[in-house]
Amino acid sequence: QPCVSIVGCSTPAGLYRALSSQDVTNGLLSRFVLFDAGDNDPLVTTPKKIQKPQSVIDWLSAWHKRPLNENPVAMEGGELIIDPFVVQMTDEALLIATEFEKEMHQRKIVSRSHGTDALYVRALENALKFALVAACSVPTTNEERPQIDLMSLVVNRETMKWACDLSRSTIVAMETGVRNEIVDSEYQNKMRNLRQAIEKAGSRGLS
Q1: Angle at Cα 194 formed by Cα 193 and Cα 196, nearest 5°?
Q2: Which pLDDT score, from 0 to 100, does residue 94 have?
């Protein structure tokens, strides 16, 4: 409070080769959320001038007009008062989140033998953040003066399931990348390069 969020882009090889196994065990990588863009290589298309959706403009404007803290300079005993509003969660959503935490806890135990258990520490936390963002993506009310109806913000079953699935997929992708890419010694580096060369050769083989 405040929390800094950084959106960055990298190639998989560039990212993982800049990390060591210590960056996994100390919790650095678990603070990342990685989205793999895949091997898509589309052709360049001619830019088109597209009208900006009014619904998106209204939504951004409505949230911008709503302060996170009604009195951002309010102090109590020398401490800044943070008074966020609450987004409700249904019982079904809470059950899904609880089961997801159990699943991630079990995976964390299994992954200890590979030294990747730290990746699962923030699985539920990330899922809840995803769910919160989705829950706040509600349409605005009042066409003349677009507003966000705070009472309509809720994390339901569908939203929580989507958030858990998304969190799970990002962590599984990270664990795969860690096992295949991160090395700590020159010998491990040579073995990784050899394995990747064989994989790249595919069915044609490699002498």
Answers
A1: 65
A2: 97
Question: What's the angle, vertex CA 14, arms to CA 10 and CA 18, rounded to 5?
Answer: 115
CA distance 106 to 102: 6
Q: Which residues pair with 80 in a beta bridge?
A: 75
Mean per-residue pLDDT, 96-120: 93
Do residues 204 and 145 lie in contact, with contact meaning Cβ atoms separated by under 8 Å?
A: no
Structure-block tokens of residue 144: 């003349």
What residues have CB less than 8 Å from 196, skipping those under 6 apart? none
Model confidence over 88-107: pLDDT tens digits? 999 999 999 999 999 999 99
Integer Cα distance of 182 and 186 in angstroms? 12
Q: Which two tokens stand for residue 154?
A: 């809720």
User: CA end-to-end span of the chain, whole Å?
Assistant: 57
DSSP 109-176: HHHGGGT-GGGGTTHHHHHHHHHHHHHT-PPPB-SSS-B--GGG-EE-HHHHHHHHHHHHHHHHHHHH
Averaged pLDDT of the chain? 87
What single-letter DSSP state applies at residue 42? P
Mapping DSSP to helix (H, G, I), strand (E, B) and coil, where does residue 188 land? helix
* Residue 31: DSSP 8-state: G
Is residue 39 packed enough to be buried (19+ CB in 10 Å), middle (13-18) or exposed (0-12)? exposed
